Amino acid sequence: MKKITAVLLCLIIALAFSACSKEENEKPEEKTTKPVEVSGIGATAKITTTEDKNGVGTMLNDATIPVFSVDGQSGAIDAINARIESEVKALCDAAAAEPLQYAFAYTEIKETERYLQAIVTYGNALSLDGFSVATYVYDKANDKEATVNDAYAACDMTAGDFDKLVLKLFDEKGPAGTIEKTEVQGFAFASAGFPQFFVKITFDTGSDTQTEVVTIVPETGTFDPATDKVVVKD
Predict the structure, then answer these.
(1) CA 135, CA 116: separation in Å to the nearest integer?
(2) Distance of CA 58 to the CA centre of its chain
(3) Does residue 17 form part of some domain?
(4) Whose CA is closest to 95, among 54, 135, 58?
(5) Could you read off the pLDDT of 173-222 as tens digits, one per residue?
(6) Which end of the chain is less enclosed by CB atoms within 10 A, N or C?
(7) Which of 130, 122, 133 is CA-nearest to residue 188?
(8) In the listed set 104, 128, 146, which residue is the last one of a domain according to the structure?
(9) 74-111: per-residue pLDDT in tens?
(10) Residue 146: closest CA among 82, 76, 200
């Protein structure tokens, strides 16, 4: 009887050890982030700025406009600069031509290991629509312009997922009111690699309609209204 008990005890110990070893072997491998390799034309990318002080009389623009460049030819860089011309520069030119209008544009330059970025807060100073945001993000590793879909993918989200997050954060952290419209105006990557989004939200307070631009960071659940311009949050 004692022999049988001893044999059973040995079997139990062996099975327990086998199970533990199996669990150890089945532990998921920790994810490692490979360093980004930037070479070739992307390694030469830079941003300079030009000032726009044009206008009529005393109504002068107060604008700093980014210009991307590389050593050599890049279709992506050309496309980014063309967008800047059609968005920010066009608004400044239109305002400068009017005697009672002037434009503003504030440019923040943010470079990470992979991305070279210009974040522009701009608008017509006398407009009731407030300011807008335009972002220009160059992927140095792949010589291409990064898109908002790239930013969604970096969060493991779809556009639909992000829309739901905006509604959730507005309900939890936003002002009292009901959202009428949202517009993702741009995005940028922080130094750590996670993206943030700049969203213009139009909402009904019950007595009037208001608009504000907020920075939303899915990684941290940040919902941060901007007062006069947006900045990249690290």
Answers:
(1) 11
(2) 36
(3) no
(4) 54
(5) 999 999 999 999 999 999 999 999 999 999 999 999 999 999 999 999 99
(6) N
(7) 133
(8) 146
(9) 999 999 999 999 999 999 999 999 998 999 999 999 99
(10) 76
Q: Is residue 22 part of a domain?
A: no
> In this structure, how many other beta carbons lie within 10 angstroms of the beta carbon of residue 186?
25
Range of 200's domain?
148-227
Q: Is residue 23 part of a domain?
A: no
Structure tokens at 195: 């993206």
Q: Which amino acid type is present at position 190?
A: A
Burial class (CB in 10 A: 0-12, 13-18, 19+), 2: exposed
- Using the predicted structure, report yes or no on whether residue 14 has a pLDDT greater than 60: no
How long is the chain?
234
User: Please, which residues have CB within 8 angstroms of residue 165's CB and are 6 or more apart in sequence?
Assistant: 157, 216, 218
Indicate if 72 and 127 belong to the same structural domain: yes
**Residue in this structure with the two tokens 């100073």, named with its chain if needed:** 125
